[in-house]
Amino acid sequence: MITVWLSLVLLCSLGQVNAAYAPLRSYEGATFFDGWSFYGNVDNTTWGNVTYLNEADAFARELVYVNDAGNAIIKVDNTTTLSDGPGVINRDSVRLTTNDAYGLGTLIVIDAVHIPYGCSVWPSFWSYGRQVEWPGAGEIDLIEGINGMTFNQVALHTTPGCIKLAEASVQSGSTIEGDCSTNRGCIVAERKPNSYGPAFAAAGGGVFALQMEATGFYVWFFSRPDLPANLRNPSPTSVLDIESWGLPTAAYPPNECVFADFFQPQSFILLTTLCGVWAGSPSLYSETCPGTCFASNILGDGSNYANAYWEVQYVRAYRNDELLSDDPPSSSGGPVVTETVWVSPAETVTVIADSRGAGSSPPSSAGSFAIIPSALVSLLLLASALFQAP
């Protein structure tokens, strides 16, 4: 009984909102590509050796399609022969961005059968706020890896002032970097097997989930054989309860970060670039791959990119109905359900499910837990060990 009580107290210390989330938006099946924008430009953010195709060209080149299993395929060109020469030499790829943006009070779930991998390959499923210059509205990296990495890496990027404490008791992953304002961001590395690369594909893929609340950001990964019951073929219209999911891979509790101050509603991006500032860094590339990033991979017939593709069953967004209502936005700073935001002369974004009010204080809710200092958590862990000792 004491051990059970201590476990519950430790869960409370996370600051998680253990709520049931209602379906909000689903990208899957024949309509998967509805609701996304195609980048249609070179990689001018991470400077990879790719050209992201527009929608018409991506479908014409069959770099995007829905396969016979009903899953979305998003791939890198692996059939064109490229030779060295003057000018820019890029391989074709795809970058997708959701037309909708999702704010606090949202749960994002992606079920992937296959994630791109291989030397020079840099896939990512991430988000950013488009309202102000990066990283003023925050960035969240949910899935990211390079070259021969064997594990997924989660990160947040913010302006100065948001810190990730290395509290091993609140997550299963390993904190690599704590300052979210550095170029690398505040990083948590997955320690479970099969989260990235050939092992991920061999296991049949898996599910990643991101919970965004004023009381913290939390990320889970489940390999296909280890899926919780409510993630095994869930209906897109079913409520999703996260209470049984256990300890997250990455926990960003609000101890040293007021999330409503650092994160605006997030647009989600799914892409694969090649080489670039991370995968193409000579020192990092040589850790797991032979030769050089450009000459050994970009050039040639492209057959080395046979595994550089996403196969996605669905991306789903859910909202926390304990914090949100269906009432329209009010001038008093009530919860925002949908709101069209002007971003640039050629672009607008629809904000979905943002629970922030006019101020930056976390919303009060029966589903929100109190925060317990990390020192007390350590004492509770010690007490738990003592009570379980023979």
From TrEMBL:
Signal peptide (residue range): 1-19
Q: Keywords assigned by UniProt?
A: Hydrolase, Signal
Can you tell which superkingdom this protein's organism belongs to? Eukaryota
Question: Could you tell me the Gene Ontology terms of the biological process aspect for this record?
Answer: glucan catabolic process
Matching entries from Pfam families are given as: GH16_XgeA
Per the record, the coiled-coil ranges are none
- According to the entry, every stretch annotated as the GH16 domain falls at 20-323
Alphabetized InterPro entries for the sequence: Beta-glucanase-like, ConA-like_dom_sf, Glycosyl_Hydrlase_16
For this UniProt entry, the molecular function terms from Gene Ontology, in alphabetical order, are: hydrolase activity, hydrolyzing O-glycosyl compounds
Can you say what this protein is called?
Answer: Glycoside hydrolase family 16 protein
| Origin species | Coprinopsis marcescibilis
